[in-house]
Amino acid sequence: MKWKKILTYSGIIILAAMLVLIIYMYPFYHFFFSANSIQLNNRLTILSGAGNSGILETDSAIVVIDTKMGTMAKDLYELANEKAGKRKILVINTHFHGDHLNGNHVFKGCPIYIGRYTKEFATKNIDKKNMPGIFISDSLVIPLGDETLVLCNLGQAHTFDDMVVYLKNRKILFTGDLSFNKINPVLMREDGADIEKWKSVLRQIPLRWQIKQIVPGHGDPGGVELLNELTEYFENMQSAVGNPEKESAVIAKYAGWMKMPLMASPERTLDFLRKK
Ligand SMILES: [Zn+2]
Fold it and tell me: What is the spatial order of strands in the sheet that 172-180 belongs to?
């Protein structure tokens, strides 16, 4: 009888814990795995889900920015391929994180560009089947008829070699995870995350390019205010770290920004700064 009671209570506790976990994880997973298509501009489609991907149609080629992962990568390829017809597909990865690059193998045979990570880092962190073929250390201009792409490796910020893609005629910038829209940033020191360098990159961007719209790594497209909001976030976190009252205030201030379970939250950002 006693064992029966223990088993019943254990079952209730496990179920309650699972329920709490589901409630905690659901908003992020729902957001992460919802692939919505936005027609951002003439012949430019954004596909959300596992990071924002772009499909740009030009006179001479189709450009895919970030390749997602799993079945979402296959859907992305099918859409790009359908638009391409006989035109070739160029692929660009803004950085090496899996949600932006693990679909590369689906684009087999297409030229794939990424920032120039060291060979050792790339081999350690990117699967052979998803390995890009062209590594950009500075910048590269690709004229494609009615649009000109500017690929620019901005160096260390979110990772060791973050690359942005500027659509010169449309004045649209794809930042990868250098910017988000009201989402806590992912900070992994082993991947190269460096807040001071990140802030400096965010300040540089509007000085280098005229920007009408920004497509962040995750979240809705916006304007240059996305860059300023993230700089302000970092500055607020930096001025609060180590002061319990200020830390609580800054955690409350950003309560509305999406968290990524076990990856990104105001608490994790403060922790990152604490372990500097
Ligand atoms: Zn990332």
Answer: 139-143, 148-153, 163-167, 172-180, 213-218
